[in-house]
Amino acid sequence: MLRTFMLTALISWTVILSACTMGDEESLIEDRQGNTLWIAPSHQDPEEQYALREVTLTSSTIVDGKPNHLNALRVGDVITIDYSAPDFSIAESITHK
Fold first, then answer.
1. What does DSSP say about strands 78-83 and 91-96: parallel, antiparallel, or unpaired?
2. What are phi and psi of 85, to 5 degrees?
3. How confident is the model at residue 75 (pLDDT cuts 50, 70, 90)?
4. Per-residue pLDDT, 10
5. CB of 77 within 8 A of CB of 29?
6. If phi over 0 gives left and psi between -120 and 50 gives alpha, with beta otherwise, what is residue 89?
7. Residue 39 pLDDT level (bands cut at 50, 70, 90)
8. DSSP labels, 13-50
9. How close are the terminal C-alpha atoms of the chain, in Å?
10. Which of 11, 51, 71, 95 has its C-alpha lying 20 to 30 A from 59's C-alpha?
């Protein structure tokens, strides 16, 4: 019983910590339409295919330390994103690389 509990706790912490590091990855803006970005990994192998990830921007999304600075985001920019928990499709802050 104790082993099962410890294993469950370990797996839970692994999932939580992997979600926390999600915002540390560099991403490339592939497309932008209004308040929606479609991003891909910034380091890509030309032989591989990548699924685009949809990220929603809100009026409270901070870009490069400035609130309401969404016009600074352009297709082709390399960025890192910190996501709003628990919804990891909403950007809390974005920083250009």
1. antiparallel
2. -85, 145
3. very high
4. 63
5. yes
6. alpha
7. very high
8. HHHHHHHHGGGGSEEEEEEEETTEEEEEESS--TTS--
9. 48
10. 51
